[in-house]
Amino acid sequence: MKTDEERKREKERAKRAALRALRKARAAAEKTGVKLSDWEGEFLGSVEGRIETYGRAFRDFEKGAASSSLSSLQHVKLKEIAAKAKGAKRPWTRTSFRPKSK
Which of 27, 55, 71, 86 maximizes the CB count within 10 A of its CB? Predict the structure, then answer.
C-alpha cells in the first residue's frame, strides 16, 4: 500500500511531466514557425494554468488515472499538437480496411 508521501511524490512527478510536455509543444511550435490555431493556443494555456493551480487539468476520475495530471483525451490532443509543431503528418487518420485495387 502506498504511503501519503509516495502518493504526493507521484502526483508532483505527473504534474512536472505534464507541464514539461505542454511547454515543449509550445516551444517546438515557436521554433519551427508552425502557426497553432487559436483553439490550440488557448488549450495549451488553459491546461497549463489548471495544472499549476490545481495539480491536474481534469476533475472526473473516469476520464483519466487518479495519478495523472492530464485526462486521456487531453493527452491525445497534446500529442497531436506536438506532432503538428514538429511538422509530422497526422498519424491518426482513418483509413479503409479494404485492400487497394491495382
Answer: 71
Q: Which residues contact 68 (CB under 8 A, 6 or more apart)?
A: 14, 18, 56, 75
2 vs 8: CA distance, rounded Å: 10
Q: For residue range 19-60, list pLDDT tens digits in order.
A: 999 999 999 999 999 888 999 999 999 999 999 998 888 888
What is the longest distance spanned by two Cα atoms in the chain? 62
Rounded (10°) angle between helices 4-32 and 38-54: 160
Q: What is the pTM of this model?
A: 0.76
Let me know: does 51 contact 19? Beta carbons within 8 Å. yes
Which cell is 16 given?
A: 512536472
